[in-house]
## 1
Amino acid sequence: MGLKSWSLRKSPWIFHLSTGSCNNCDIELLDCLTPKFDVERFGIVLVGSIRHADALIVTGAVTRQAAPKLKYLWEQMPKPGLVVALGTCGCSSGIFRDSYNIIGPVDKIIPVDVYVPGCPPKPEAIISGIVKGLAKL
Amino acid sequence: MKTIIPIGPYHPLLEEPEFFKLVVEGETVVDMDIRIGWNHRGIEKLAETKTFDQLVFLVERICGICSTSHPIADVLAQEDLAGVEVPERAQYIRSIVAELERLHSHLLWLGLAGHFIGYNTVFMWVWKYREPLLDLFELITGNRNDYAMLRPGGVRRDIYKKDLPAIRKVMDELEPANEMLTKAILDDPVLNARLKGVGVLSKEDAIRYCVVGPTARASGVDIDVRRDEPYAAYDKVEWKVIVQEDGDVLAKAVVRLLENFESIKIIRQCVDRLEELPEGNIWNPIPEMPPGEGIGHEEAPRGECFHYIRSDGGNYPVRVKVRAPTFSNLPSFKASCLGETVSDVALITAGIDPCYCCTERMAAVYDGSNRRLYDWQDLVRLSQEKTEKIRKELGR
């Protein structure tokens, strides 16, 4: 494990991007930060800029308008970093697969490290997914 | 001097993508423009490829927070179309799930409003009390959000008698917590100074902009679909509509907090009634869907949710139209935000509890002369041609 990966595993900062989600995964992600699950005790915080983030969490299938923005954000992200596709829509487009305005799941635009399926995934699943992703680094 | 401040579309303050253009003079907002559509998923078109049973699952995914409101409005439209009666037990179950959802949505809003004004204590505190509700949802429906409880003609799952004490327990714990929150928020001098008189939407403006739900009720407009056009079991239980006169953000918070008490009251009465009714009869089958139209209204946590379904007698709907509450509430920013300072705009826009993924229904462009419908590629081509034209005119 290099120095970069080692420092990444302590206190990962996450950036959340909604590319066409229905708010469901988003509020479950926020739920992880509130007292019951409280991932902040591990130093995990939501940050406002992708340039400060160690992990990019993408919720929702990628709409036509969001695809270029997603690619742009990923290019700005410091590497190595973790990309998490949250929810069934992010993993496989789910029920929106046949829509005219959906380009595809997240991994059609950028490489994804961790897939967390579920509609919405439970906070336990989200935490477990991020922990597994960090262990892989 | 006028300055333009762009906010969004992907801004740390905003959960969902949307774009605000604020025109400011000094600190004061003199004009604003909203651009949405980043989240458009083409649900209405997609709905035409689903059968009537599958449609309920699709509309549930319009919005994750109103994930009972859209299905209720949808099944009401389908039942209106087919002319099917819903069993009494199913109606009470619908009311229970809808009111639990209202509780969780109002508490969620309250927490986020605290977060928007930088008062994160409120955010953490309120979300702590919201957590037992989600556990209750998991117990009675099997999922924390997206409950899949509705089906045309009734409900998909029964709430068994062994689960009723759990609902009562959560309500008994939530009532003092909500009372404490109400008192704490009304008495807090900091919150009063920050929320009172901010973003006032007068009654005239509320009527002029056709706002719905808690936004309208906070401005003194006495409307509520649950009372005006009762569905589910709302005409069988005792409750009252909460109306406040002030129209500012504090009034919107008060309306939501007091509505929580009414929701708890409704749930308790429905639970008592479920105890008396025999288990089992929760669904009347719809043998076939006749051709025609059906409409369904539902009071979502954010306001009136409207669904329209047209059928030609086949397995699939021919047209599904959704009007979400935020669609009616959004234009009221023009009345409430102008003249306020930039720092208050985030709070005022959050005051209507906007839900952009509900709102982004449709993107179609008609050519006025020959009534031609443009598709995506056409729009791209038109836009490129225009850019080319402008570039030539500028001589570059």
Note: Residues 13-136 of chain A form a domain with the Rossmann fold fold (CATH 3.40.50.12280).
## 2
Amino acid sequence: MAREITYLTDVFLITCVVQSGTAEKIINAATSVGAQGATINYARGTGIRDRMGLMGVTIDEQKEIIRIIVSKEQSNRVFESMYLAGDLDTPGKGIMWMSKLDRVATHIPKDVLKRVSG
Amino acid sequence: MMKFSDYIHESEIKHRSLSYNLLTPKPQKNNPDALKPKKIKVSFFKAISLLMPYTSVRVMEQLKAVFPLAAYLFIFQLLILRQPISSASTICLGLVAVIIGLAVFMEGLKVGLMPFGNIIGDNLPKKASMPVVLIIIAILGVGVTFAEPAIGALQSFGSSVNPADAPYLYEILNNWTLPLVLIVGAGVGLAAVIGTIRFVKGWSLKPLIYLALAPTIGLTVYAWLNPDLKTILGLAWDCGAVTTGPVTVPLVLSLGIGIAASAGKGDSSLSGFGVVTLASLFPIIAVLSLSIFVSFQITPEQIINGYEANISNMENTNDEVSLMSQTPYQEIILGVRAILPLVIFLMIVLFGILKSKLPDNLVTGYGLVLSIIGMCIFNIGLTYGLSNIGQQAGETLPAAFMQIPISSVSPIYTEILGLTIVILFAWLLGFGATLAEPALNALGATVQELTNGAFKKSMLMYSVAGGVAFGISLGVAKIVFNLDLATLLLPLYGIGIILTILSTEEFVNVAWDSAGVTTGPVTVPLVMAMGLGLGNAVSATEGFGILSMASICPILAVLSMGMYIQIKQKMQTRKMEA
């Protein structure tokens, strides 16, 4: 059988950089409102930490980068629940952004394909 | 019509859009610094909102380690032993001091001491010759031993030994404490040096274990055959467990790994292991050598005479307790004495030899201050909290099976039932305390990665915890039945050697390190105090030795588990072939 690719469109990528140890909470919030999975990277960050003098020690230099691929429909919902779960409105907690993806491809089960494309 | 996602959007959180252009700095004609980032002023309320999560995370971490243990001891004493807890409020305050002290100390270690270790480890091999590097590592070994929180516990148990029963144990714990800690440190230093050479040369750990065990066992047998020295064995073997704590392991490892990396040998996944093993064996040799040296210097009669002279002296000068030996001054002095030499030494190496700078003087300074303050608070908590509760538990334990003066209802149970309860108590204590140790979790994850999932994290954690639990039960049994420590240790280490010969290098590395990693700053003083209290209550000669049992048993457990996994894998491949 010939192999083929199904391109997914209407896809967004949410990236969220937070202090080490807080990723789990944020991912739980994201999956509870429909996100299908997440990738975590470990990283080291600089920023306001270095400009706050001694208060900088309260912010962990080690970061976790969460990446979640979402559909356009769910993107705002997931974005907001991650923002709230991570308390990103508190200083030093982290930063997140969302970008539009051109196309995404992965394994899609046959029955699912059949169901959605009818 | 509104889409569902928009509806959620509107209902959950208010939002507005803002151009980032408005926030980024703009070039100004007369001000060349306009584009440089400015210092941020933190207002009081912002500072609070930053400090709250920062502190609570760190305090909670320690609370999780201390609270279940303390609750277990309290409940056991109240319900099973039916003995009220004396000075409960003092103990609770002491435990709070332990939690806060450890939280502060660990943070200080992370932001203050560890950066030193990392910078020195990275730069030292580039700027100094190998012998200089090794000398520095050896001195560092002594320094980190002083800074180890659990080592303070050793020094505070001296007064509980009866010189008539165990003359040399009394002498060393009372009049030789400084040489004792120094020589234990020398043992750790030597271990760090050999561990580093091993990193660089890529030696196998097995022959090193045999070479280190030979003198250990030789000296043990020598001391065992001498009735006056025999009582020192428990202390000597326990010292191995005390030294491998939260200061020594990361600092020595970061140095060793840095050096191995600069020698081009840092990529071996096993290079991090082995130092802990050696650092728990060499102190045993060191303490045994010290006590044999002491035995040539002074006879048991002289010690007992000195003790009696001391007592009559004490009676004369009883009223004038010097300010320095009072709480909290004594604890503060101990705390400063523990950390300061290490800090000064690290500074000499960094600024004097490496001529290097710290990334952030302010933050490192803050970390160093924290580690000293944390150590002082922890020391206070150690005296009033951990030692107190451990000793009380040990003293009341025998009420389960024999009559003791402090409990009016003793013996509560029949002898056999009571003894079973006590052993079961020790087992559960060891199992719970070990599983709660954060270092074990980290080790488990490393091991799972190292063996490509063959040795599962949970399997390692349960075999280590089971081993420690069995070891602590055995140690308690040793004190209750007044068993001979050497007759327990020698066969166990014999089995250990046989299993080591039969196992592969990976499992040997993991197994021998697992014991040292799991004896943290909370468990060690608690178990030691419990052993000594128990020893006093059943009038055993000495209450040491529990920790030494808790060291060898997990080694055996992990080695046997490794053998089991290997055999299972072989069977599977055979099945596949058939």
Note: The CA atoms of residues 442 and 476 of chain B lie 28 Å apart.
## 3
Amino acid sequence: MGIITIDKSDHLFWLGRYTERVHTTLKYFLKTADLMIDSDPDSYAVFCQKIGIADVYGSSENFKQHYPFDENDSNSIITSLHRAYDNAIVMRDYIGTETMAYIQLATDDIKNAEQSNSMIAALIFVIDHILAFWGCVNDMIDDEQIRNIIKLGQGMERLDLYLSLDNSVDDIKRAYQRMKGFLKKSGLRYDESILYTIDNMLSESEFDHDNVKKLLRNLIMQ
Amino acid sequence: MDDLIRNSETINQLLARYGVKFGIYKNGEFKEQLFPFDPIPRVIENGEFRYLEKGLKQRVDALNCFLSDIYGKKQIVKDGVIPEEFVFSAKGFLAPCDGVTPPKNIYSHISGIDLVQSKDDSWYVLEDNLRVPSGASYPMIARELQRRSAPDVFSDNSVLDNRNYAEWLKEVMDYVNTGGINVILSPGRYNAAFFEHSYFAEKTGAVLTTGKDIVCEGDTLYYIDYNGRKQRVGAVYRRISDEYLDPMTFYEESLIGIPHIFEAYRKGNVALLNAPGNGAADDKGIYYFVPKMIRYYLGEDAVLMNAPTYLPYYEKDMNYVLSHFDDLVIKDVAEAGGYGVVFGSSLTAEKKADFIALLKSKPRRFIAQEVIDFYDLDILNESGERTARKADLRAFVLTGSTTKVWPSGLTRFSRNPDSFIVNSSQGGGFKDTWVLSR
């Protein structure tokens, strides 16, 4: 393809971010839903607090009903999936119809899950299709820069969520190194001094997660 | 054929999977919906297709001659074949295009000609679409999926392959390209035909753009990449209407056009497919004159018939329309997409009186046509039973180094048993169109 404009790089980046948001938040949702069965019925409130969304759900039951499926909730998983679709559909010529189809299939899965008798279990099919999407990105998009920008978005979102969800330092470091690799290969302009600062922060045994998140917001230059 | 019917649901699911949708605005809200696909194809025998091909090539060649003439010497008007009121006062005639010759002198590169077949098997042209006709992508992708779902049907029937449309389109873009890349200019994600824009970009290798990343400098178009590097644009397959194409020349408040693109085109530095100003030739009023222009430019009789049409502009025709009002369908020449179509018999006495008053005060605004009893095609209804519905055929004619007729087309059908309106925006569905190789 060879030519990537600011607009298109933006769509590719956010396609990666939203798709990863669906993937990681869904995995955490499934983990939280399990905790709510018998260990900690209110763990959904901690989940909301960690990922920085208002607890508008009021009860664990409401959370289970709305967080994955509510199209009117701007923080819901289905809303993130719609945003991924919005970015994918305008990039059909770059990512291909086959790759795009997996975002559509994941959307169908989440809608089917809502109608299913076992709503939570049926959400696993969404993860299947998200993983298939990433497989397609790797396998079917020949242009390295396109792949790297999408994966940069994925890496950035994963790192941001790991920092929010207080994943282990090892997880965070791995996610950071991965993101940094894609950033360097993406061809996008970035602030080298921010990378230097984060490198230093992560070399300490303890670091302020919010500060890293703030720095990441200004890493890529438009 | 039973295999196709059996697998109908699978095909519709696969079409959804690949995002084969069209957008529609309802109550001010954008909705994407699936374009319902019916598995029973329209089948056209090879001999019949050769007849249609001959007529369609002739028609499109004449329309291209007409456009070249009216924006050039205007001989057809000077010779009194078409009254000037029908040319220069038509909404589609664009004064800025006067005197501009497009690359290779081609105006309509992609023409969508709507036909119907009457119950006596005669084909009639209903309208010519020479601006931004859409729809070829749907049968193209449906065929790909049907071949997978029922391969035996295709090995048992010799059906001409229709999946070459994108190659043909690329050939046309390359032929008129003035040097540089090909781009497809779309109004964006919320346009009704966005699926088609993005699908053609993928299949032709053209760059899909909404124009934001294109600039015109020194009367030349450039596509600007992330790092500010410029790449020249040689051909723009634009899927936006003339009036929005360039705010410096046409509708000045247009946000979706490219400033100064028209100047680049005027100077011959970029090809626009289709050329701006083509609306002067696909006006429903001009339609009446197409057989005359075929005779005038090509010295031939029209192979394909128009539906019997009357122009209230002529007193004799007005009298006929008034005395046969209930038997006719009246069309507003400025409308498209199935809108502005009134069946005389459907009006109440009061509405009929109002309409006739409007017709008399603005005779140039309307044409009247005999209602053709379309040949019904079988579709599968919601219970899976065959039932007959009105259907038309949009044939696609591509003009590059030669004029070629795509051996397929978009067959649209009405899902409403009482309706002749087949447009997707009004709930219609589509079928594949098979042209047999023998």
Note: The longest helix of chain A spans residues 6-38.
